[in-house]
């Protein structure tokens, strides 16, 4: 296993920058998820690491080697593709054997390794089948087997679970996580599903528009999103972002809504607002940190329920506040009906404040 | 009430009759097409086993009174001058068509792959330039190509025909194969390259086997095109020992008599390689022409 370092990585297509100055380090044995909406450059970044497309500028290190100009076959990587890319004309056995044959291993050693991998992935009885005779989950497993059979320095995975149905996806998610723990493998994993990234990765690199937005552990990204994009992308339902205006009143700082209500800030939060470049402040709050009252309460802001979605353990309520959608989760025994008047209380210690112009998170320094 | 009850079944009946009518029209059309294509073939076969006299009789003998394989024996007999000529023409045709087919596949496969996979300057222009040739009837190029062939000294060689057939056959071959490569996911090659193959190995080991049906279809197209071609062979070749079958068969027409059974036997044998090719490879051929019609 080896570490991977991206340094000022750039990929342009004509005038379009698909990957923009991305720098990050994947430690030896670390599971890193590249996550972002489609078109954010995550798959391009992965293909650059794999060497499937040439880089425009910057450096890629795998282990201590610069691999910028190396062929994919010389980078000592293995890749799992979204559509699995199993060789349709070859049996499962030959699919698994192919990378070893290409490395000119002796026949008996190939046989030993293929059978070993098949045993690990519990598909010894499938070895003679052709890929089209396998279910989606089995194909996925073969693709994984073909990657692990030759013990590469780095595993690259491009949305390996997105073609599976929901139930199988959850199951394979834990299998891949287990696989990472057992092998202490270095894995770079691309996904558009933030939940996959949060549940599986040691660290996640959130990308948007070709830029790396934030690179940290899922817990850190969740607790301290660097900007409004990360805040709205990570977490489900999304963090509510309410555009407000900061002003001073009675010696304290308040955030005022165009709707007329205002929210006094705690001292710590007031200090954060001081660092903003503008008076436009965006208030961010996750659904679980907003308290819903059925009647007027001190400090609570009046709103009107829009939709109510019971999921069993929690009920999600959507409301409009200052023109933004606010998600609130409540325990199911609080019955809320659509169009009912409700009052929302924000937890001063758990709200996020963003600069309305730069969209960056505000910190008190 | 009664009017509704009366009209509903009538409307239903009328509709059923109309559907049946269309179906029968379709069947009659198919029977007609079948006769249209099969009758000349059948008549060719029947005539080829008649004697020269029986072939000219009127009213015709629908089935020969004395069927004979004499025409076939004559054509396949290397001792006989007619047989010598026929076998030589047959061999010439086979040679020209086979070389055309092989070269066509050798050129079309990498060309189609490049058009499908690589983005290079002038790609679209070149691709349409390749198709541009198909906009004109082949005869238009007859005189210019003859002058060109004379200038480079290829008149009266099989090389002139092979070059010409390649020029005409390649655009379609490239076009057909490109569609094939477009349908092979690029991830397969990427996987192979990551698994340790060079780009070329990925092409040979992974992509080529998957495109076999396309290659076979392309080969059949080139072969049949070259095998049946008449006007260029007639123009470029004048020496007897170099003629190809379509031109050579003309020798059965002469000023005074035409050996119709011999002509028909030769025509029949000329169709044998094509029919055999089709029968053996038809399964690939059909797959190739419908490939990409539906997403698998």
From TrEMBL, chain A:
Any Pfam family: ABC_tran
Keyword ATP-binding: yes
InterPro entries to which the protein is assigned, alphabetical: AAA+_ATPase (IPR003593), ABC_transporter-like_ATP-bd (IPR003439), ABC_transporter-like_CS (IPR017871), ABC_transpr_MalK-like (IPR015855), ABC_transpr_MalK/UgpC-like (IPR047641), Mo/tungstate-bd_C_term_dom (IPR008995), NA-bd_OB-fold (IPR012340), P-loop_NTPase (IPR027417)
Domain ABC transporter: 4-234
Keywords in alphabetical order: ATP-binding, Nucleotide-binding, Transport
One example GO MF annotation: ATP binding
Entry-linked Gene3D superfamilies: 2.40.50.100, Nucleic acid-binding proteins, P-loop containing nucleotide triphosphate hydrolases
Annotated PANTHER family: MALTODEXTRIN IMPORT ATP-BINDING PROTEIN MSMX, OSMOPROTECTIVE COMPOUNDS UPTAKE ATP-BINDING PROTEIN GGTA
Family affiliation: Belongs to the ABC transporter superfamily.
The protein, known as: ABC transporter ATP-binding protein
Organism: Mesorhizobium caraganae
């Amino acid at each position: 296993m080896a570490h991977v370092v991206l340094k000022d990585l750039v990929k342009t297509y004509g005038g379009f920058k698909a990957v923009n100055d991305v720098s990050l380090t994947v430690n030896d044995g670390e599971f890193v998820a590249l996550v972002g909406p489609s078109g954010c450059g995550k798959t391009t970044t992965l293909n650059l690491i794999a060497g499937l497309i040439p880089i425009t500028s910057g450096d890629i290190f795998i282990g201590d080697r610069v691999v910028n100009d190396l062929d994919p076959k010389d980078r000592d990587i293995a890749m799992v593709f979204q559509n699995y890319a199993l060789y349709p004309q070859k049996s499962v056995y030959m699919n698994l054997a192919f990378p070893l044959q290409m490395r000119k291993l002796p026949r008996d050693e190939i046989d030993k390794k293929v059978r070993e991998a098949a045993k690990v992935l519990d598909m010894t009885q499938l070895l003679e089948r052709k890929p089209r005779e396998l279910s989606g989950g089995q194909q996925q497993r073969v693709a994984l087997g073909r990657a692990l059979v030759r013990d590469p320095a780095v595993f690259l995975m491009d949305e390996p679970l997105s073609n599976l149905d929901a139930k199988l996806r959850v199951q394979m998610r834990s299998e891949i996580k287990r696989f990472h723990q057992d092998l202490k493998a270095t894995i770079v994993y691309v996904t558009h599903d933030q939940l996959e990234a949060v549940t599986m990765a040691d660290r996640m690199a959130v990308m948007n528009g070709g830029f790396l937005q934030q690179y940290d552990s899922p817990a850190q990204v969740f607790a301290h999103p660097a900007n409004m994009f990360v805040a709205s992308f990570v977490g489900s339902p999304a963090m509510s972002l309410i555009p407000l205006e900061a002003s001073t009143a009675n010696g304290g700082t308040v955030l005022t809504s165009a709707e007329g209500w205002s929210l006094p800030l705690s001292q710590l939060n007031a200090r954060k607002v001081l660092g903003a470049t503008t008076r436009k402040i965006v208030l961010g709050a996750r659904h679980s940190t907003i308290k819903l009252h059925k009647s007027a309460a001190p400090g609570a802001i009046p709103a009107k329920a829009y939709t109510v979605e019971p999921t069993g353990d929690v009920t999600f309520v959507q409301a409009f506040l200052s023109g933004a959608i606010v998600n609130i989760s409540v325990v199911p025994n609080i019955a809320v009906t659509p169009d009912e008047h409700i009052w929302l209380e924000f937890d001063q210690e758990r709200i996020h404040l963003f600069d309305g112009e730069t969209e960056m998170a505000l910190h008190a320094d | 009430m009664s009017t509704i009850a009366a009209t509903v079944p009538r409307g239903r009946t009328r509709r059923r009759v109309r559907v049946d009518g269309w179906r029968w029209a379709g069947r009659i059309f198919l029977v007609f097409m079948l006769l249209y294509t099969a009758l000349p073939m059948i008549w060719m076969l029947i005539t080829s086993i008649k004697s020269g006299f029986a072939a000219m009789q009127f009213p015709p003998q629908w089935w020969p009174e004395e069927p004979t394989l004499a025409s076939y024996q004559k054509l396949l007999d290397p001792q006989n001058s007619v047989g010598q000529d026929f076998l030589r023409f047959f061999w010439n045709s086979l040679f020209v068509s086979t070389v055309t087919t092989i070269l066509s596949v050798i050129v079309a496969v990498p060309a189609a792959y490049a058009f499908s996979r690589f983005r290079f300057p002038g790609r679209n222009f070149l691709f349409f330039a390749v198709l541009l040739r198909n906009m004109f009837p082949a005869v238009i190029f007859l005189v210019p190509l003859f002058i060109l062939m004379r200038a480079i000294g290829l008149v009266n060689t099989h090389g002139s025909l092979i070059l010409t057939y390649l020029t005409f056959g390649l655009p379609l071959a490239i076009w057909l194969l490109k569609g094939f490569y477009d349908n092979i996911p690029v991830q397969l090659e990427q996987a192979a390259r990551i698994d340790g193959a060079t780009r070329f190995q990925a092409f040979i080991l992974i992509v080529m086997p998957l495109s076999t049906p396309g290659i076979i279809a392309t080969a059949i197209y080139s072969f049949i095109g070259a095998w049946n071609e008449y006007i260029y062979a007639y123009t470029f070749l004048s020496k007897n020992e170099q003629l190809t079958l379509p031109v050579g068969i003309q020798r059965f027409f002469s000023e005074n008599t035409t050996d119709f059974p011999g002509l028909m036997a030769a025509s029949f044998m000329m169709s044998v390689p094509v029919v055999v090719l089709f029968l053996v490879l038809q399964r690939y051929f059909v797959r190739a022409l419908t490939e990409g019609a539906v997403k698998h």
